[in-house]
Amino acid sequence: MYRRLRTLLETWLAKKVPATGLGLFRIGFGLVAFQEILFLFHFRHLIFDPLPFIDRASPVLHLFLLLWMAAAGCLALGYRTRWAALANYAFWVIFVVFTPMWQDFDGGFDQLMTGSSFLLMFLPSERALSLDNLRLKLRHSTPTRPYQPPGEVSVLAYTLPLAFSLGLLYFDSGLHKLSAEFWRNGMGAWLPPTMPYYMSALDMSPLLNLKWVEMFIGYTILVFQFLFLPLMWFRPFRVPLLVTGVTFHTGIVLSLNIYPFGFAMLVHYFLMVPFAWWRRLHTRLQHQQPVLTVFYDQDCPLCNRTVIIVRHFDPRGAIAFQGLQSQARHHPELDAIPQATLLRDLHGLDRGGRLYAGLDTYIRILIALGYAAPLGWLLRLPGVYHWANRVYRRIADNRQRLSCDAACPVPVAPAMEDAQPFARWYARYAASDRQIAQRIAKFVVLVLVLQLNSTVHYGLLYRWAGTRPVNPTLVVLDRLSDTLINYSHAFLGITPHALYLHDHFAGYHHIFALAYRDPEGRERWLPFVNREGRLLAPYWGRVQSMWANVAVTAHPSRARLEKFLGKITAYFAVRMGVDLTHADFAIKMKKIRTPMHWEKDLRRDNLAQPWRDVGTVAWRQGRVSVLLPETDLEML
């Protein structure tokens, strides 16, 4: 079996495909990571401070967040891609393992990002839509022979992330769903959007009130999750799987307030788009005729670099370049202009026959690119134009020109010392495709063993048997399996995907909200949970997970609830200008219903339930105490 796997991997390794989808996946993944790190930085006091603004986390952590944000930005741009991927992976592991993101603010999103971040360190995602490609072009091109970096990758660069990040996740999640009663009833997609803590601001009632539609969606999700991994390898099934997966995850983004997970899953589907679609899209976006023709001095190194840069950022072919030294390419519009004047600036000729020079040419280039047009319009503003023109003239008048003839160097492929450090290391470590396939096969086996350990341990034995082993030998094996899951969870993102199942919603019949009570007895609701019971934006994602999955559960722990009541009130006290030397916050509770069978208008009914006061969060001289009668917790 192992030998057959190795042979199959060697075959796939030799099959080359365009890198466009991989590049788009890298960009999308980097942007999802960037926005999540921005979220962490914005809510750093709520997430990382033991007690927000009172007992603060180390300020070095804020610096690490900024460095992590820079790494995610470089990953999205494709700048020093492998180093950025390495830094991004290291930061995911460090923050998840050593901060409250491990348990208090974890909703399953971090494991997906950790696993895909690990794979991105080894994927050649810089071969498309990257600044690294531009760096190679600038380094190895000459005026007469432009260098084009490799634009193809092994098909394994597409299939491995799909299999590990999506296929194994779906299969494990589907196995867990079979133990949940409401999933077996076909209500898996119906119940979470009816629960106030999980629903988005978009009212999905017209869809939720159609029982047959919800059953169809629920059962289709189950079937899809089990079939994705075995069918994704076959071409006829890829488009149906792509459409189904994108539809479901778009539904998650629209109907639930866990949008980061939805977007993180969606970007993986760039890897499933047929290559013919990218080619067809590229053809449709191409200009039949250039919008602008730019004439440049071929003996000017700066002008040649400008040509390479503009061409790199002009995938639609809106701009054509012609060298002034190529007399056969001269246009009649240029004949009346002295050669010295032509060589002094870049000149641009648009479709209407209008001629531009100097800064005006650059402005027209930006406008012709389309997406850069706002920058071009900005440069045309009075004051900005004159300042930019002075900068341009200083650069243009001091540039150097070369006499480039047959003595010009001939471009060569990047030498090994110019290649990415990971590529240099891996080339020495695995010099042949057979060796590379062998190492990939070992990694695949390792991942399958770790996933099997997690799925069997929690998805079958623990969830279906319902008891822990009592035999001493089995107890040791159980603890060893738990330890192994902790490591695979931290470093590869392999973890039980038992999210929002029967044991989570069963008995979840009460939710809490908070309101500040001023000395006159007037109440102001914290802008966290509103009067309907919905969690308000931007406190979604991992903050929602903290409140709805950790602080408040079907059977909340008093210690855990008190801890997060203190965190929330301390955080919002600063935002609302409340002095914590003497402040009281009312704890409000209302009943909701989470049935395992379909009910019409459940979303509306849960939002309409009344609140009642059940306790107080009291702050005195910066110290917090929670006054919540035991009877109110015991009744939950």
From TrEMBL:
The chain crosses the membrane at residues 21-41, 61-79, 86-103, 153-171, 212-234, 443-465. Residues 14-277 form the HTTM-like domain. Signal peptide: none annotated. It comes from Candidatus Methylocalor cossyra. It is found in: Endomembrane system. InterPro entries: DCC1-like, HTTM-like, HTTM_dom, Sporulation_signal_mat. Its main location: membrane. Keywords: Membrane, Transmembrane, Transmembrane helix. It is a multi-pass membrane protein. It comes from the Bacteria. This is Predicted thiol-disulfide oxidoreductase YuxK, DCC family. Pfam families: DCC1-like (PF04134), HTTM (PF05090).
